[in-house]
């Protein structure tokens, strides 16, 4: 029997908006890794003394470094929104025998996010 | 079909816990040190203050956990992006070595940096 | 409202065509007509050689799945007026081999389905005299959404992972496995574990989520797969820590 099998385009994720959004979501992981590298460079600079820390601050102010970090920031926010948004579908939380509504699970994630962000900001800025 | 020894469950656990801590903690850190301080929206902390914060064992423990898990999150997600997004599954072995190897190396570097602080 | 609409239907005649070609037909644009009615009109009045599958015309048999303007749809539940003024492009379901026109080979799905044992598995069946296995409304709610699956395969058609790797067990089969795993009367979770937690099972899924978006019955296969990942990962790690406690 001869059948027809539709070939998959190499860049198949350009064919649908939802597929493209998915690939962008997956690529946010690259910026997660970049942020870790950037923070480790900061730790290294602080560890090496005040002069080294100042060099890190100077370099972080260069336009290309700011550009990278602004893009990374946007991808991190995409990660946050998609991760928290999908969380209630991956986990079922029960309280007193009843299923906690998905909205409450999402809200709890954002609440934890705000609290942790405030703690970190307070630690760094105080 | 017996795949009980498959590493996938462990890798997925690392991926998902990494995704969670990355979502919870990384945005504020990158916002402060990558955007707000460089653009002079906020005044960066003095070296002495930051050094004191980083010297705290709890900070170091949290930073290590965050770095290692976030790197494994990247490794797992990027591996599947290469498999599916670029249809490179036939190069699975080098991809696995690059991704998870990178996460292991990154975690070791993070541990070394945080321990010698 | 115009009284006609153009349907661009993919034709594939095995042995004659090397790939599908679009053929245009004018069909009446009636408010209560679904795409399937348009196709039936073509078959009855314009071109009797057109082949397509259908049965119930009411969204329950799951046989009339097609790709309508690029999206996987049940052709009996997709209305012509929603696409007016047209044209409407009708192609066979993606990700399945096309046998003829809009008819695809569903053998792969049919082979996979029984491997996840989508039926109630009991270690010991209690005697008939003891009556039915009772279940509370809460226990019913745990799996009810998954029991809505009609095996229409729109989710396979929407899934890019299945498109790339035909070994992937796929959304509907895994969701149906979960339908029984989460059923309080079922005892077969251990038997389903091997297939589901193989590399071709849940671990291939990257949570694109398109299966759930495509489902005409409101099932969330993508969610089912992620939930099962958590279960399987917890079990695997328990197994690593306490290797002897497995039954």
UniProtKB/TrEMBL annotation, chain B:
<feature type="transmembrane region" description="Helical">
    <location>
        <begin position="95"/>
        <end position="115"/>
    </location>
</feature>
<feature type="transmembrane region" description="Helical">
    <location>
        <begin position="57"/>
        <end position="75"/>
    </location>
</feature>
<dbReference type="GO" id="GO:0006106">
    <property type="term" value="P:fumarate metabolic process"/>
</dbReference>
<dbReference type="InterPro" id="IPR034804">
    <property type="entry name" value="SQR/QFR_C/D"/>
</dbReference>
<keyword id="KW-1003">Cell membrane</keyword>
<dbReference type="InterPro" id="IPR003418">
    <property type="entry name" value="Fumarate_red_D"/>
</dbReference>
<dbReference type="Pfam" id="PF02313">
    <property type="entry name" value="Fumarate_red_D"/>
</dbReference>
<keyword id="KW-1133">Transmembrane helix</keyword>
<dbReference type="GO" id="GO:0016020">
    <property type="term" value="C:membrane"/>
</dbReference>
<protein>
    <submittedName>
        <fullName>Fumarate reductase subunit D</fullName>
    </submittedName>
</protein>
<feature type="transmembrane region" description="Helical">
    <location>
        <begin position="12"/>
        <end position="37"/>
    </location>
</feature>
<keyword id="KW-0472">Membrane</keyword>
<keyword id="KW-0812">Transmembrane</keyword>
């Amino acid at each position: 029997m001869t059948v027809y099998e539709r070939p998959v385009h190499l860049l198949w994720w350009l064919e649908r908006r939802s597929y493209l959004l998915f690939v962008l979501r997956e690529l946010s992981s690259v910026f997660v890794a970049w942020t870790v590298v950037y923070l480790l460079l900061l730790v290294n600079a602080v560890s090496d003394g005040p002069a080294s820390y100042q060099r890190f601050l100077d370099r972080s102010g260069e336009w290309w470094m700011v550009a990278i970090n602004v893009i990374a920031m946007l991808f991190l926010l995409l990660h946050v929104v998609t991760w928290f948004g999908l969380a209630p579908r991956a986990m079922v939380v029960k309280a007193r025998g009843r299923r906690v509504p998905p909205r409450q699970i999402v809200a709890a994630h954002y609440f934890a996010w705000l609290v942790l962000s405030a703690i970190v900001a307070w630690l760094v800025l105080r | 079909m017996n795949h009980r020894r498959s590493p996938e469950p462990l890798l997925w656990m690392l991926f998902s816990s990494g995704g969670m801590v990355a979502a919870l903690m990384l945005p504020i850190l990158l916002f402060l040190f990558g955007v707000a301080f460089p653009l002079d929206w906020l005044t960066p902390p003095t070296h002495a203050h930051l050094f004191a914060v980083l010297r705290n064992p709890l900070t170091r423990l949290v930073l290590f956990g965050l770095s290692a898990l976030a790197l494994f999150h990247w490794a797992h997600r990027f591996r599947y992006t290469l498999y599916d997004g670029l249809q490179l599954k036939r190069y699975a072995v080098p991809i696995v070595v690059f991704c998870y190897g990178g996460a292991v190396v990154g975690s070791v570097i993070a541990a070394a940096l945080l321990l010698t602080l | 409202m115009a009284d006609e609409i153009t349907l661009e239907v993919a034709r594939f005649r095995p042995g004659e065509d090397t790939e599908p070609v679009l053929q245009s037909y004018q069909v009446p644009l009636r408010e209560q007509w679904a795409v399937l009615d348009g196709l039936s009109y073509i078959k009855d009045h314009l071109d009797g050689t057109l082949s397509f599958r259908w049965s119930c015309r009411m969204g329950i048999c799951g046989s009339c799945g097609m790709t309508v303007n690029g999206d996987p749809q049940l052709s009996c539940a997709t209305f012509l007026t929603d696409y007016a003024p047209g044209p409407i492009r009708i192609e066979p379901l993606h990700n399945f081999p096309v046998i003829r026109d809009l008819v695809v080979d569903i053998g792969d799905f049919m082979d996979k389905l029984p491997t996840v044992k989508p039926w109630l598995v009991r270690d010991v069946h209690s005697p008939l005299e003891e009556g039915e296995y009772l279940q509370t409304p809460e226990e019913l709610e745990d799996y009810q959404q998954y029991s809505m699956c009609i095996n229409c395969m729109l989710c396979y058609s929407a899934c890019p992972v299945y498109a790339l790797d035909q070994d992937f067990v796929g959304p509907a089969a895994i969701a149906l496995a979960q339908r029984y795993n989460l059923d309080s009367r079922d005892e077969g979770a251990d038997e389903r574990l091997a297939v589901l937690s193989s590399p071709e099972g849940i671990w291939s899924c990257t949570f694109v989520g398109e299966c759930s978006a495509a489902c005409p019955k409101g099932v969330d296969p993508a969610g089912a797969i992620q939930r099962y990942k958590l279960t399987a990962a917890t079990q695997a790690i328990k197994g690593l820590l306490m290797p002897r406690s497995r039954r």
